[in-house]
Design goal:
29% of the residues lie in helices and 22% in strands. By secondary structure, it is α/β, with parallel strands linked by helices. The protein has a single domain, classed as Rossmann fold (3-Layer(aba) Sandwich). The strands form 2 sheets. An 8-stranded mixed sheet has the order 5-3-2-6-9-10-1-11. It has a 3-stranded antiparallel sheet with strand order 4-8-7. A hairpin with a 5-residue loop joins strand 7 and strand 8. The mean pLDDT is 97.
Length: 266
Amino acid sequence: MGRTISVEYRVYDGADALSRAAAEHFLETAQAVVASRGKARIAVSGGRTPKTTFELMANPGERYLKAMPWEKLELDWVDERCVPPDHPDSNYRMTREAMLSKVPLKPEQVFRIEGEFPPDEAAARYESAIRGQFRLEGAEVPRFDVLALGMGDDGHTASLFPHTDALHEMTRIAVANHVPQQKESWRVTLTQPVIVEAAEVFFLIEGKAKADPLHRVLQGPYDPETLPSQLIQPKSGKLLFLLDKDAAALLPAPDAQGVGRLEIQR
């Protein structure tokens, strides 16, 4: 493909340190964007590590609750399961319980994926909401200020799963994706062209089970059908990974500050 991606990975000693680093990154990035543009649009993912991060950000005993410019934020989701918002599997429910119910974000600042609708309708409604939020025209693509991703044991990210139709979608903002390997479930996901357009894209990954797929994503042959996380090649040319030691175990050892760097040709 002829592109070079500069990858930086920061390695932390355990899940708690990783979650705190993610909270710091959200805060610092949001503050900088608000200072320069007056508003920060953030897209988040679900999962155990983000949940702990969100709980930290909403904890009145931590500095994030007061320091975050909540009134200047808009919050979106990278993907969602096609379930109602009160379902145990809902990414929105997790975020609401961990953070939204405890921070001063108004309903009009929150743009959830309405997973209670049929999959194609939920995707269309989400795309319409984003078009309104960003005031897009025609084929314009939204540019999130911060977009946070996770990665599954199978190398998927967002709801871009191996060998599924959404991997090939180049024109839509959000699509419904049938995922046979996840109990024949349906998901709604932002598409690859939207994800890579974001100003700041970072992955938050922990656990021993992620070490091998992460190594293959970053240092193995280019095979995005099998490892969809390889599709995430930001237009900015920069990609950040926040990792615990277990997830980083097969990558080149970081420096004394816990920072490693790779240049990837795609």
